[in-house]
Design goal:
This protein has 13 helices and 16 strands. Strands 7, 8, 9, 10, 11, 12, 13 and 16 form an eight-stranded mixed sheet that branches. It has a six-stranded mixed sheet with strand order 2-3-1-4-5-6, sandwiched between helices. It has a two-stranded antiparallel ribbon with strand order 14-15.
């Protein structure tokens, strides 16, 4: 590199720095090659809490891919600052999540955190996030951090656990005509909140939940639970599995002979687009609701899908899309703060003020608790040209975490749990 080129680049970097840049420009014009360089801002450190081992790793890897793709498209530079992406594998458990969060925040000195994946992981670090005033964009659907116990440093670009299940229940009842269902999901917070949301809307619209089944996160054989799927008037099954568990469940459900009897509906992770490469024909007919669909025809989504296919060879799913949009929100907020992150309260204010018109999921914004309001897509697994597809059947627009319920009334009830709402049967 020539001295002239070096001085030229120094001038360009300094030109945006106000008075100092003016002094440098004057020196350069006068022919003084000794004009000092103006230091650019330090890189913004983005921490990612994700799951790269265990049964939830399928989604955790997508998280890493989605956020990495966004920064790669930006050449790891947003709002004038370079980006350092630092990844921590939580192992999919609360203790691991707390340990990795501490590493990212206290050792690596990150400016903003993305993740974690699971509701029980988010609940484990919520108080810690507040204590350290760490702006956090989480995938986890732990509902109370944007409801009854709001976390001021939390923003959710994805959805609460029940946010997709509310419209799924509405669709199942009104358009599929289901009247009596049995639910089955993993025995942890995400499962409870999904099923609780489905149950409330389904029963409010005249349906009945006959039984709720809960399985361990690691369940090689669902036979003991499948044997319980029976009942007078039963006409459907609701599953809320996550990670790679939907693949195993749908295979065993079909092998047990239940697919011919009862249609299956599910939430955002039950029929994730990224699972299409691994599902067999046993998944055909599965109807699910999700804040993301690869089939959504926005220009932003077309670019995102093309980028993910180039990176991985496969269609992206909900986890990857949510983290890609985390990147969009971070960049937009940084533009509002002039690239500054030194004041976490001001940065958090800028994050919550983001309103996106064009994204892979369509337009979205945030409510006063920091939770997303946006599209929810109803999809159905089909086979087209020898391959599984998940076309959109219906789009519910501007879906909030409170569905159509008045906010005050919704918040006055308990958080969805293993036993709430109770069965009416």
């Amino acid at each position: 590199m020539s001295k002239r080129t070096l001085r030229r680049r120094t001038f360009l970097k300094g030109a945006a720095a106000g008075a100092a840049a003016g002094a440098f420009a004057g020196g350069f014009a006068a022919g003084f090659p000794w004009a000092p360089a103006i230091a650019e801002q330090a890189p913004i450190k983005v921490g990612l809490l994700t799951v790269l081992t265990g049964p939830l790793a399928q989604g955790g890897l997508q998280m890493k891919q989605g956020l990495s793709l966004f920064f790669e498209e930006k050449n790891y530079k947003i709002a004038g600052r370079k980006v350092d992406l630092i990844i921590g594998d939580t192992g999919g458990n609360p203790a691991g999540t707390k340990a990795k969060a501490q590493e990212l925040i206290e050792r690596d000195k990150i400016d903003v955190m993305c993740g974690p994946l699971a509701a029980f992981e988010m609940l484990a670090i919520s108080d810690y996030v507040i204590e350290h005033k760490m702006p956090t964009l989480a995938l986890a659907g732990a509902e109370n951090v944007t409801q009854r116990k709001p976390n001021p440093y939390f923003l959710r670009v994805s959805a609460t656990s029940s946010q997709a299940m509310h419209p799924m229940a509405d669709y199942a009842r009104k358009e599929m005509g289901l009247k009596k269902v049995i639910t089955i999901s993993e025995d942890f917070a995400f499962g409870y909140e999904q099923i609780g949301g489905f149950q409330q809307v389904f029963e409010d619209e005249g349906g009945r939940v006959l039984k709720k089944l809960w399985t361990p996160i690691v369940t090689p054989d669902y036979t003991p639970f499948l044997a319980q799927i029976e009942g007078a008037g039963l006409d459907g099954v609701v599953q809320g599995f996550a990670g790679s568990n939907p693949i195993r469940f749908m295979q065993q459900y079909a092998n047990y002979g239940l697919k011919k009897k009862y249609p299956v509906v599910g939430g955002e992770t039950a029929g994730d687009d990224a699972l299409l490469k691994s599902f067999g024909d046993d998944a055909i007919g599965l109807v699910s609701a999700c804040p993301y669909s690869y089939a959504y025809p926005s220009e932003s989504n077309k670019r995102f899908v093309a980028g993910m296919v180039k990176m991985t060879g496969y269609l992206p799913g909900f986890y990857a899309a949510a983290l890609y949009m985390d990147g969009m929100v971070i960049e937009d907020a940084l533009k509002k703060t002039g690239g500054k992150t030194d004041n976490p309260d001001e940065f958090m204010k800028a994050l919550r003020a983001v309103s996106v018109k064009e994204s892979p999921r369509g337009p979205f914004h945030f409510d006063h608790f920091g939770n997303v309001v946006g599209n929810i897509f109803i999809r159905k697994v089909e086979k087209k040209d020898g391959k599984l597809a998940n076309p959109i059947l219906k789009t519910y627009h501007n879906v909030s975490q409170f569905w159509t319920y008045p906010e005050a009334k919704f918040l006055a009830q308990p958080v969805y749990s293993r036993d709430w709402p109770p069965l009416k049967s």
